Every structure is written in C-alpha cells, then in structure tokens.
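Data deposition worksheet. Section B asks for the primary sequence of the deposited chain exactly as it was used as input, without tags or linkers unless they were present during the calculation. Section C holds the resulting structure in token form. Section D is free text for depositor observations; keep each observation to a single sentence. Incomplete worksheets are returned to the depositor.
Section A, Depositor: J.P.
Section B:
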Amino acid sequence: MRTFSAILLFLFSLAADGQISLDTDWQFRVAGSKDWYPAEVPGTVHTDLIRNGLIPDPFFGTNEDSVQWVEKQTWEYRYFFFTPPQPSGWQIIFDGLDTDAEVFLNGKKLLRTNNMFRRWEVPIDNLLPHAANELLVRFLPTAAIAMNQKQNDPISRPDNERVYARKAQYQFDWDWGPRLVTSGIWKPVTLVNRLNPYLGNVKIDAEDITANATDIRIEAEIFSNADTLVRLVGMIWEQQTNRLWPLNEGKLTPVKKGKNIVYLNTVIREPRLWLPGSETAASKYNLDLQLRFDPPDEVHIILEDREQAFGISNIRLVNQPDSIGSAFYFETGGRPFFIKGANWIPSDNFLPRAKKQAHYERLLRAAKEANINMLRVWGGGVYEDDIFYTLCDQYGIMVWQDFMFAGAMYPGDPDFIANVEQEV
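Section C:
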C-alpha cells in the first residue's frame, strides 16, 4: 500500500494540466518469477539489473560474455495508478518501448509493439475501474524473434538477425562496441487527456529566401474527437529586435473528427539568417502558437500553447555535372564553404543514461571547439532527442540525418515497410 499512496498523491498533483507522468515507482522481473525489483523509467533492463546488483558491469573485463543471457529472457514491468478524477478522454502515450512488447491494462491487452523508434498512443477510457489500475509491459526477446524471421526468410541476407528488428542496430555488436541487446521503457510514459482538440506536429518552412524577404509557411496538425470550431492563433517574434508578425488573428477554423491540417502564412522582411559555424548561430526567431476553444458567450479557453525556436537559412547542397563528373558541396548565400564533419553515434550503449542535457552539452561543445560544423547522425543508432538538435542549432552545427538503417540488406515486405512508414 505504500506504493499506491505515493502514486495517488503524485497523480492528483499533476492531473490539472491534462498530463500525468507515469515515470516513477515501476517494478520489473523475469517473466514467471515471484520476485519484483524496483525499476527506473526511462531505462533499460540491463541498467535495472546493474542497479539491483543482479548482473556485473558489462563494460568491465569480460563481463559482456556473462550477461548475454539477458537478451534471451522475457521481462515484465508493472506500474500501479489510480483512475484520474476526469472521467473520459484519457490515453496512455509511450514515447519509446524497446522493442517487441505486449502492453496490458488491468489484464486486458492494449498493444503489441515491434519498433523502438515509434511513439505509441492508446485510448483507455473503457478500461479504467474506479479504484487502482495495473499497467504491465511484457518485453519479448527481440533477438530471438528476429532470428526466427531470418531463418524463415526465403532471401538469404548477408548479415545477422539485426536487420529484421526495428531497433538500434549497434546493440547487436559493432566494431566499436559490445553486443548488449537490451529492452525496456527507454522513453517517458504519460497519461494524457484528449477530450478536447489538440496540436500534433508543427512544421515551419521558409521559402523564396532573399536578403529582402522570405515567405514563412506553417503547417499544423490538429486532432479532434468531433466536428467543431477552434481558433489557431500565433505570433512570430525576432529575438534580437523584438519585431512581431501576427498569425491568423481571430479567425475561426472548422475542424473535423480525426486529423486536420491547418496552414498559416506570413512574410518576414529583411530576415536574419542562421549561419553554420557562427558563434551567434542560434535560431533568431520564435513561433508561439495557441489553440483556443471559444464557446458562445464565454471567455476563450486555451487548449494548448506551444513555442518553437527556428532559424532561416539559405544553405543548399550543390550536386551538378561538372568537367570531371558531378559536384558535391554546400553553399550559403551562393558561396561554397568547407565542411568539417564527424559521425555521431550513441554515446552510451544504454541510451537513457546518455540522454541528459549536461552530457549533450559537453560533447557538442567539444565538437564546436574542434571547429566541426556538421554531424552525421548515424543510422545504426537512434533518432536523437530534441535537446541534441537544439544544441547543434546553438553551436552552429548542421545535422546530416540518417534514417535508422546501417550497412545491410533490409527486408522489403509490406509489413516491414508499413512499420517504417509509421516510424518516419
């Protein structure tokens, strides 16, 4: 009961803003065991085992060999929480499950996952009783599942089983690292209320960039449970001069049930450009968007407020025929510039240990001090966290972004392609 009371206080203190973190007080075990141990979320099964003294540090001596049994097991994680006071509209959002997992709420199966790079959202309104709830995530042995797919593939692919798993490829061993095929809840888990319309992805494009002006086009996703009217209003402001560009002032936007796309446009005069390698490269502009609901004869309700920094740049890749073949270089403002680049790989085999702002700052500041102006995010790792791209922006470092594929012949069947389409 001690665990329940701590969760109850935590949930009710956060439910007012429609989001409740489910990242504390998890437990884990080998499936079928009677013994549950405290777990850390976000985390991995290897780091939970190390923290509980159940395996040695795999980076010491030959300990890597002694922990290979971990990838062969089925692991279970559980969490208890009370039903929030608002009765409907709730979803559980898993930002990252590594990799093959079954998710159960109060014994009923919600989800089967097979991609650590995807975000999973599950409605749970009909599965919340009036008292406590048990959320259980069962991680299946991904390496064994992938090996079974390899053995049943009519095409013989010249690599190990890793190509069948939508999972960080380096975990299956690489020339720079050990084989540690881990599993776990590697990104946050959140209980979110979706009763009202809400924003999805927001994309900002700069077009027809000149010294005099640039066209700004904003594409925003709005999701709704019913046909209704909302207001999407916003403003762009320039950080150094405080110039302002209002967007969609006061206009009602009809949205239908499901996914909607709304566009906002403006023109920025005399834009200040983002330049690679510059000491003052950080994005010059901020976009502030508000999604509002305006009931008749009532004060408007702000459903969501989102702020995003962005820059305007006229960098382009020149890849044109020349006297000896084809050119391949970058230019900005019509002038070629030299690329000093490096390959960015995960900085820890156990990803959640590396995803700390101070850790990113130390490594990216070192890259900046080495005069690196481009980093390639390697396809054998993961799509990086937002803080990575924010710091690259700050330090004037361009990013060459791979999709998560690395040096192999991958499947091309419809199920695999559909999974990757959801990923990207």
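Section D:
The first strand starts at residue 19 and ends at 21.
The two ends are 42 Å apart (CA to CA).
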